[in-house]
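Quick start: load a record and inspect it. Here is Probable glycerol kinase:
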Amino acid sequence: MCHFLYLKVFNSKTAELLSHHQVEIKQSFPKEGWVEEDPKEILQSVYECIERTCEKLTQLNIDISNIKAIGVTNQRETTLVWDKETGEPLYNAIVWLDLRTQSTVERLINKTPGRNKNHLKHKTGLPISTYFSAVKLRWLMDNVDKVHEAVVSHRAMFGTVDSWLIWCLTGGKSGGVHCTDVTNASRTMLFNIHTMDWDPELCKYFGIPMEILPRVRSSSEIYGLMVSCLGDQSAALVGQMCFKDGQAKNTYGTGCFLLRNTGAKPVMSDHGLLTTVAYKLGRDKPACYALEGSVAIAGAVVRWLQDNLGIIGSSEELEKLAASVGTSYGCYFVPAFSGLYAPYWEPSARGIICGLTQFTNKSHLAFAALEAVCFQTREILDAMNQDSGIPLTQLQVDGGMTSNRLLMQLQADILCIPVVKPSMPETTALGAAMAAGAAEGVSVWSLNPEDLSEVTSEKFEPQINPEESEFRYARWKKAVEKSMNWETTEPVCETSIFSSVPLGFYIMGSMLMLIGAKYISGQCLYTYI
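Running the structure step on this input writes:
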């Protein structure tokens, strides 16, 4: 499995994409549920993207000295620790999807009053979950000797991917800037979203020394040679120009992330959503908050069908297969490979495929996989509408999966509202560029609503009646229930059938009788299937 690192160059006056390059980054899976990436490979991929993009710009007769600012956007919860004296990573990056901290999470929840996974939510906006960085950092400190030793000797630096890249690109061990922005900090469970800073009580709760944490900055200011930083989903919110309270976007990538701007005040969810920092576009600008629904597996299900089952050769083939039947024929696929995120936060769930008949084939499974992405979005949209009290009348979308037109139509059908896709779906990179260009001291990109370029888009209208949509959604909810409480961290003893004495005698006796019957009758035995 892998994902891509992108570098894109935009015209700050027109938002036109001028050039881009991408490099594949490999993910490793040392054990079941573990997901890692090599920090050095991530950094080298950045250098390669910069070099190749500059070559392409030169070929287009664009002077690279006209590049005024660089912004970073990243997977927010992926966790790294490195040595500030040597500049060397002390372990692989633990990716946001990783499940190795499940026992840590259960232990923490068991210590809270009433075993409440929302015990820290009043400060963090987040449930206690494997998803967030604090428990990954705690695991590294407890299980990796190099990390433990570096923390004890005051040499360790912690950060999400943005912090690692900014530190390296601004000098590294020779004076690199160790910082992050408010959007990434708000995904650690160590950051107080009200005070907008690291919280001593939270750090004490997880046993994390505050000295290893990066300095928290706004999402749009000059850090050094780097200018701005936004978590990927916040960058997409900015790229979709969702600057007003109530505006929302859904990004379809490895996972699926629906964010709704809630303005200058954090709104706590009663329906399983996260409260997160949307952005802070300037050192002296107010923070803006969002409600977020996070789905762990969206585009990743396509790679699973391709790499693990081998029933498709590409994402384009998945769309063709699904379109050839136009229905799942009652088959429902819950891809809870990493448990269920919003709105359930149920780590014990595992993936299931149900409703199979002899008629079911790979085309129906392909359709069910696409529907699964749409049903998961429906669940978090319903929760968001309940929390806000004002239902969305249309959904703005972006991300790689939006090139699948069948998926977009299915999404409109299942939500019963229009789905609006911009002509340039990779708005995450655009948002990072906008924040960089708008930073004080750069100021080549205006974020005033009247100055923003008009974005062309395509609208997908619902084409089925609401009754059919509700019927299919109800069946999906039934399938989700079946996926729950599947996994446990308690050890399971593998027992042999012969460990049961009566059963063992019965089986051995049956075998002896069958062998005896063979020799007595002189006939061959056979089994009817």
